[in-house]
Amino acid sequence: MSLFFAAAEALIADYLNGRTLPEAVHKAVVLAARTRLLHGEEPVLDEALCSDIDREANEPIPSSAKGIRAGL
């Protein structure tokens, strides 16, 4: 895995903050972020890309202490 790809993955994961994306969308936004990093474009996560991510992101499943203890 290239450094730019790893950096793009980290940026997307940080922006998602626990949310998830469908696999195809995740790959597309990581590649878009990687391309922007390679070309030195700023901001890497521009408004359009963030809007796309927000539109497609699934909220994390809330966890509770009871559910964790029960193995849920």
Give me some keywords for this one.
4 helices, 72 residues, globular, mainly alpha
Note down, in words, how this protein is organized.
This protein is mainly α and 72 residues long. It is globular and about 40 Å long. The relative contact order is 0.17. The chain has helices at residues 3-16, 23-38, 47-56, 65-69. Helix 1 crosses helix 2 and helix 2 packs antiparallel against helix 3 (47-56).
Any chance you could write out the topology, listing elements then pairs?
Elements: H1 3-16, H2 23-38, H3 47-56, H4 65-69
Helix pairs in contact: 1-2, 2-3
Q: Using DSSP, what is the number of strands? A: 0
Stretches where pLDDT is under 50 for at least 5 consecutive residues are none
How large is the radius of gyration?
15 Å
Strand content: under 5%
Overall mean pLDDT stands at 89
- For the termini, the CA-CA separation is 33 Å
What is the element string, with H for helices and E for strands? Answer: HHHH
Q: Treating each run of at least 4 consecutive H or I residues as one helix, how many helices? A: 4
Q: Which term fits the overall shape?
A: globular
Structural class: mainly alpha
Helix % is: 55-70%
Largest sheet: none
Summary, kept brief:
With 72 residues, the protein is mainly α. The chain has four helices and no strands. The protein has helices at 3-16, 23-38, 47-56, 65-69.
